Amino acid sequence: MSLYRNTVWFLKGLQEYTKGGYESAARSFVEADLEVSVSGRSFIITGANSGIGKAAACEIAKRGGTVHLVCRNEDRANEAKKDVVEQSKNENVHVHLVDMSNPRKVWEFANGFSQNHNLHVLINNAGCMVNQRELTEDDLEKNFATNTLGTYILTTALIPSLKKSENPRVITVSSGGMLVQKLNVEDLQFEKGSFEGTMAYAQNKRQQVIMTEQWAAQHKDIHFSCMHPGWADTPAVRSSMPDFYAKMKNKLRTEAQGADTVVWLAISETASRQPSGLFFQDRKAVSTHLPLASSRSSPDEDQKLMSKLEELAVKFKC
């Protein structure tokens, strides 16, 4: 089944996830959707010092938004802030240093932010793909700690702040790679069998889709969505997937093309009228499963994921 999923997914990707796929989809985009001012609205973007996060930050700042860049590396974060301010002519760009793989630091940041700032839109973009199984100082597998637990804690901790705002939204940058994975709630940290970074990442991205669906059902007054940016030419792709990058570099999307649906979900009125909890690709809601792929989890498994994440999150709460 995994061979079937991988083959169908790759063929789909060649048609839809490339630069050509974006250009084809963009013919039906409504330009007016992004012709808006978001002055007075506050946005958090994690992993915003490069790639899709930085591209999204630029577009939002150009439209007047107050942008909070959540980054791990201080020098790169400050460089990104300088670029965003220069490109947008918007000084309301702020840096917050947080390692998303450290759950205590994520809680600490979220609690401090809530006390000092308002928040309209959270964009969960930070991610990592570590190709060898590596544990954090908290004995958490690093991909899971960053992509899944960090996203869960940050979102959960900021929900009360979001609920105080008008038209609040949460966008999580997932990946079409999740289509090759069925949720495995019994081995969240890849302790069994051999470890493969790309499959661990895809499993985390499946978990993000399920978290989005669950949050949407629980919190009706916040608009939740997740999305696939396509195959984009970003520093993360170059460093984490060098073989894929070498083969596909001439077909990859630009960072701005990868960020387009993030921005659309974050600021457009059209996006906010879509049902909450959906998975988007090129401004359209798409299926979270490949045909005949047997990748659907049960409601009990989905709930078990949320319960396990809550149990872990509470353990690290400040």
From TrEMBL:
Pfam families: adh_short. InterPro entries: NAD(P)-bd_dom_sf (IPR036291), SDR_fam (IPR002347), SDR_member_12 (IPR052992). It comes from the Eukaryota. PANTHER family: DEHYDROGENASE/REDUCTASE SDR FAMILY MEMBER 12 (PTHR44656), DEHYDROGENASE_REDUCTASE SDR FAMILY MEMBER 12 (PTHR44656:SF5). This is Dehydrogenase/reductase SDR family member 12-like. It comes from Carassius auratus. The lineage of its organism: Eukaryota, Metazoa, Chordata, Craniata, Vertebrata. The gene is LOC113053308.
